[in-house]
Amino acid sequence: MNEPGIKRWRAEVASDDVFALGEGPLWDAPRRRVLWVDILAGTVHGGLLTGDRVERTESHTVDRYAGAVVCSAAGDLLVAGEHALWVVTASGEIRPGPAILPPGSERRLNDGACDPDGRFLVGSLALGGATGGEVLVRVEPGGDVTVLDDDLALSNGLAWSPDGGTLYSIDTVPGIVWARPYGDAPGSRRELFRVGDGGSPDGMCVDTEGTLWIACWGAGQVRRYTDSGELIGVVDVDAPHTSSAAFVGPLLDRLVITTADGTLFVADVGVIGLPPTPWAGP
Q: Cys-Cys with 77: which of 88, 159, 225, 272 at CB 3.0–4.6 Å?
């Protein structure tokens, strides 16, 4: 993939800690910490960004799996567990939240993120292989669940355009990045583009220029695409299974990358990321 016009960067190892399946990095600006999950350990981690290093300072094990984490303005964490949501209060107390998937089903919750109004969106995957019936749902302020999609193979990364008017979502197995008008009543989705050239699209984030940064599982890369699907940049990572990426730091100018190979990475890519919206739920 050494095509003219494609800019390249290299990520560097950012932590000595090893995680079973790192995912879902997030910048919590009020507390100046990086958050992420270790899916297979059912654990949420927090750490401080110091130079090019992320030093882990806290961990909370919530469930058999932990698919995603978001944070409220007050510092409470909302975590996607195996089938249900969990709240980790700012004081460290763990409380059960609403169930999203039927208990006992061979499925689990996967990637999630807050929309521009602070509502939590989260998707699912099948533990025994793709079913074609996985969901993407939105948890409303009162705890009700609105289904956005129910025909996915493996629901994954979520992000919004800088104006909040477009929701981007990934279905990993077919490699599709979907786009839909977004608001209280989200519009119909359309296929924006498919990720090719090896690797499967996983987690993603968006920068202030409106371009998408997509972790490509199996390729050892985070790729930068325009909102029309043109590949314009590649971050090379010395781990094949890149799982997600997020802009972190006081200026949102450092790209932290999680992997299933046990290591966190950081890269400087010369752009600024969008700040995550705090979770608005109780």
A: 88
